[in-house]
Amino acid sequence: MDVAIPDGIDPDVLAETIATEKAYSQELQRGGEWAHIWRCVGEYSNISIFDVADNDRLHEILWGLPLFKWMTCEVTALATHPSDIALLAPSAG
Amino acid sequence: MDVAIPDGIDPDVLAETIATEKAYSQELQRGGEWAHIWRCVGEYSNISIFDVADNDRLHEILWGLPLFKWMTCEVTALATHPSDIALLAPSAG
Amino acid sequence: MDVAIPDGIDPDVLAETIATEKAYSQELQRGGEWAHIWRCVGEYSNISIFDVADNDRLHEILWGLPLFKWMTCEVTALATHPSDIALLAPSAG
Amino acid sequence: MDVAIPDGIDPDVLAETIATEKAYSQELQRGGEWAHIWRCVGEYSNISIFDVADNDRLHEILWGLPLFKWMTCEVTALATHPSDIALLAPSAG
Amino acid sequence: MDVAIPDGIDPDVLAETIATEKAYSQELQRGGEWAHIWRCVGEYSNISIFDVADNDRLHEILWGLPLFKWMTCEVTALATHPSDIALLAPSAG
Amino acid sequence: MDVAIPDGIDPDVLAETIATEKAYSQELQRGGEWAHIWRCVGEYSNISIFDVADNDRLHEILWGLPLFKWMTCEVTALATHPSDIALLAPSAG
Amino acid sequence: MDVAIPDGIDPDVLAETIATEKAYSQELQRGGEWAHIWRCVGEYSNISIFDVADNDRLHEILWGLPLFKWMTCEVTALATHPSDIALLAPSAG
Amino acid sequence: MDVAIPDGIDPDVLAETIATEKAYSQELQRGGEWAHIWRCVGEYSNISIFDVADNDRLHEILWGLPLFKWMTCEVTALATHPSDIALLAPSAG
Amino acid sequence: MDVAIPDGIDPDVLAETIATEKAYSQELQRGGEWAHIWRCVGEYSNISIFDVADNDRLHEILWGLPLFKWMTCEVTALATHPSDIALLAPSAG
Amino acid sequence: MDVAIPDGIDPDVLAETIATEKAYSQELQRGGEWAHIWRCVGEYSNISIFDVADNDRLHEILWGLPLFKWMTCEVTALATHPSDIALLAPSAG
User: Fold this and answer.
1) Which residues contact D91 (CB under 8 A, 6 or more apart)?
2) d(CA G13, CA C93)
3) Is C2 on the interface with D (CB under 8 A)?
4) Interface size, chain E vs chain F, as Cβ–Cβ contacts under 8 Å
5) Residue D23 — φ and ψ, nearest 5°?
6) Do chain I and chain B touch with ≥3 beta carbon pairs under 8 Å?
7) Dihedrals φ, ψ of C61, to 5°?
8) Could you point out which of A27, A57, I34, J22 has its C-alpha 20 to 30 Å from the C-alpha of D71?
């Protein structure tokens, strides 16, 4: 997710939007659907891992991001890796 | 990490190399340096997250992969994201 | 899915692999998971639509393709489009 | 089809244009020329399949999209795939 | 259409294939389906214009090229341009 | 030739420029220098073939296009193809 | 780091921002974290080498650049090279 | 060197800048540092060859171009080619 | 023009081909059609300027290069630049 | 500089070539022309800074690398950056 905020945005509107974005993300992190988030060094962008029921739910989450209109998202479908040690646990999910 | 195994490799050598690769990865996962691994759907490649002391250690791990000679790796430097809820915990790392 | 068959493959092995591939695809089409398949004009490649339970199942299908080792796959996550007339039907899925 | 709506568009004009776009798409879906439409997850874009008489008709449809001036379209020519099970039916089209 | 002939091909086989390719192309040119062909300067590739009934026929023509297995084709769907003076003629096709 | 018309252009100025562009193109088509023009399906762009004395003349034609300032042109040098049936005619040009 | 300053910036604000940027860079160079800086010939961009404690610190430095909002940064993780003669010194770091 | 002049520039300012640019280029051509200049057909760009003392001087020349702020430059380091017939002359430079 | 010589070429054949290539290039340089040649630093490639009658002649020259089968050529059409001081001379060509 | 060593190279020849490469690099480092070398994490490639008299000398160094035939080099021309603190020293070079 790359964010490109156009010049000339009202600073108050921008600050409020970023605060709303943070709250939105943290609520989904607490709910477990937004599993991980990292900042890409030197960029206004992040790499996130989502654990959701299906593609429709993922699109709903991304489309609902307060900063969505200034974002470019790239989605990579991920699956369980056969070397993941979570598969070795008694009750691997 | 994309893997491209050339045609004509001896199947026994290949099977052994893949087994060694899996053991190598799982040992580092248990040690905590190889934090996450996911399979990219429809590709012989993975997306992994490493939590290592420095760049020299990361290179040592990747260079030591039994399949390294047939791999193409792309490394993205990641940092803590300000929205990460781990930062809200009493003792965030 | 692009297919690149290396020169020097035994023609009998190749013919058999292509036949197995076709049977594999048609069985999944009949089962409904491989929803659509089209040929890209002028290329040894196709565009297909899959309707599967989750990413693990999709990877299992693609990884199991008899021609997988000579293929390059690119997966795009798709969701229901709000303009799709299927949503207007009494019992849209 | 990617849509990029410039900042500063009058919200009423935009809402009306999107509504017109939806009606335009659904009429063509009902007529059978716009065979499929899916949303690309996390993007303001779609992948659609058209079943039209010729290239002139396809261009006429796309050029007539109410959102065309803010769109980037990429057209891939598709043909029947020899593995398509529709070819096995008594009267395949 | 780019052609990349691998090293090590038997020269006689190659010469015969190129001769067959030329005859194949010229027959389609005479039939009117292969409307134009130009050489890209400094490359073993060409730009061609086809005037065919539909995508299935175009794929059949390209797939049947004797050099197809060593080619990379890129197909661009073309339509009548509104500025084309052919549209001004009494019986424009 | 891709055309990207910026938002906010006066509609009358735009309509007049497009009309001038069409007249300019048709005059050169009648003169034989602008040999072919096709519309790329789903894009505000065209593929054209020019038959001109030299590069200076080609640049003069393109630079003189009324829409040139909003265009991106990509020029591919073309030569006669040895399979072109025009070479078989008694007086091939 | 590429810099793209939008047209229409107040020249005084710009001059002051560039001066602040220079002071910011030189302070970090003196502190040793910004190890090297070179200008890319013919571009408003630079290639720099940073020697920092971790990725969080590197992101903090880049994010804090006065010109950051007009920059595009690309970060490449570097490690010690086995051929580096610094490794041959009595107390290589 | 590609030039992209934004819409809305005052035509007088633009005309004067282009004239200054031309004089600047011609002075350097006469001095021998700007060895060659060609127009890329159909583009507002050129390919130039510079023969300068070092990279600092080349950057100074490019940075000083009156149109520099609207340009994108790509610099390729060139060296003497062993097949160059200038090397065969009695006093090759 | 990039050259990529495959491993396993007989060294004598290679040395002879390179010598033939050099002679071929120098003859065309003496004739004036191969106006300039430079080596790209750090690459087995060159940038050359040709001054030929037309595209057919340019293709004939490039296609005839002894190393052509291992080359990738990219041709850019160039025209006279309006700032070129050669235009100021009494008898500019 | 990326290195891609083809499968099937004799291991002894390879080991010797890598050793020669290391000695070659270290001699140039001691002489000051090869100013810096870093390993790109996770890749068989490096980023190096050269401080040489001119482009001909740089090409001579790179072309002479024992691994050159398996390398892909990308050269970026660098100049002194106006923010470099070396310029503030009494006798900046």
Assistant:
1) none
2) 57
3) no
4) 75
5) -65, -40
6) no
7) -65, -50
8) A57
Answer yes or no: are the C-beta atoms of B53 and G55 closer than 8 Å: no
d(CA F77, CA E52) in angstroms, rounded, equals: 26
DSSP letter assigned to residue B39: E
Locus of tokens 């012989």: B44
Using CA atoms of G67, G72, G75, G76 in order, give the dihedral in degrees to the nearest 10. Answer: -130
Instruction: Give residue F55's pLDDT.
Output: 93
Residue J74 CA, distance from chain mean position: 11
Q: Please enumerate in sequence order all residues whose Cβ is within 8 A of that of H15, keeping only pairs 6 or more positions apart, or say none.
A: none
Is-contact C46 C5, C-beta < 8 A?
Answer: no
F73 touching chain H per CB within 8 A: yes
Dihedral sign, CA of I6, I10, I16, I20? negative
CA torsion, ordered E19, E20, E22, E26, to nearest 10 deg: 140
Per-residue confidence (pLDDT) for residue J92, from 0 to 100: 40
Distance CA B29, CA F21 (A): 64
The bridge status of strand G71-72 relative to strand G78-80 is: unpaired
Q: Assign residue E42 a region: left if phi > 0, alpha if psi is -120 to 50, beta otherwise?
A: left
> What average pLDDT does chain B have?
87
Closest CA to H25 of H3, H10, H41: H3
Query: Is the domain covering A2-88 a CATH 3.30.70.1060 domain?
Result: yes
Reported as a single tens digit per residue, the pLDDT across D51-76 is 999 999 999 999 999 998 888 889 99
Other Cβ atoms closer than 10 A to I9: 13
- Cβ atoms within 10 Å, residue I87: 12
**Type and span of the H or E element at D39:** strand D34-40
Has residue E93 got a pLDDT over 60? no
Strand ranges inside chain C, DSSP E: 2-3, 34-40, 46-50, 71-72, 78-80
Residue B45 is given by DSSP the state B
Measured between alpha carbons, how far is E48 from E61 in angstroms, rounded to an integer? 12
Strand order, beta sheet including A34-40: A46-50, A34-40, B78-80
Hey, what are J60's tokens? 């001579």
In whole angstroms, what is the distance from residue D32 CA to residue E13 CA?
48
F6 in contact with H at a CB cutoff of 8 Å? yes
Q: E touches J (3+ CB pairs < 8 Å)? A: no
Closest residue by Cα to residue F8 from G13, H8, D60: H8
Span H8-49, pLDDT tens digits:
677 788 889 999 999 999 999 999 999 999 999 999 999 999
Strand, coil or helix: what is B60?
A: helix
CA distance H64 to chain G (A): 10
Return the pLDDT at J14.
86
pLDDT tens profile E43-85: 999 999 999 999 999 999 999 999 988 888 899 999 999 999 9
Dist. CA B17–CA B46, nearest whole Å? 17
User: In sequence order, what are the residues at sequence separation of 6 or more whose Cβ sits closer than 8 angstroms to the Cβ of residue F5?
Assistant: D69, F14, F44, F67, F70
Provide the pLDDT for residue E11. Answer: 79
Least Cα distance to G42 among H56, H28, B60 occurs for H56
Which amino acid is located at H88 in the chain? L
* HEC-encoded secondary structure of chain A: CEECCCCCCCHHHHHHHHHHHHHHHHHHHHHCCEEEEEEECCCCEEEEEECCCCHHHHHHHHHCCCCHHHEECCCCCEEECCCCHHHHCCCCC
> Smallest Cα–Cα separation from F44: which of F70, F19, F83, F12?
F70
pLDDT at B93: 40
Nearest by CB: E22 against F21, F26, F83: F83
User: Does any CB of chain B come closer than 8 Å to the CB of residue J8?
Assistant: no
| Spatial CA neighbour of D76 closest among C43, C41, C4, E54 | C41
